[in-house]
Design a protein that fits this description.
The chain is built from eight helices and no strands. It has about 160 residues and is mainly alpha-helical. It has two domains: about 45 residues, no CATH class; about 90 residues. The chain binds zinc ion.
Length: about 160
Amino acid sequence: MKQEHLTDKELQEWALGQAAMHGQQAAHVQACARCTAAVANYQALFSAIHAMEKPALEVDMAALVMAHLPVATSQQSVEAAAKRAFPRLQLLLAVAAITVVIVTLLVMSSYFKGLLQGVDHMLFSLLVVTVLTITLFQCRELWVLHRKKMNQLKFY
Ligand SMILES: [Zn+2]
């Protein structure tokens, strides 16, 4: 027996039937008990792996999940969903905050009058404009957020 034992790679290729063996190697495997046993082991292993390749779970998961999702069948339900998505809590909080500010201003108006007597009229105007601008931008941000959420609801 001149030929050396085959390498693991060669044995695996042989077992898979991919190898184009030289006559010498083929003769060796046929003659050598160790290499024949190794090829048989690899063939058993590969066939076992091949049998496992089929998915254990052949259930259509997507269909199962979709069956449990609420489907928007009509325009009415889409509108209902949009109503739910509207940030009512944020609006309520904004209204509450504005109310608190107005009440505070009314209650403490005499105090503010005394405070503002020393303050430049231009500075006060600037303050009012700044507050109005910030409020406007906050409202715009809220509106943009609302639009974005509405667009997310339009699947079709
Ligand atoms: Zn051998």
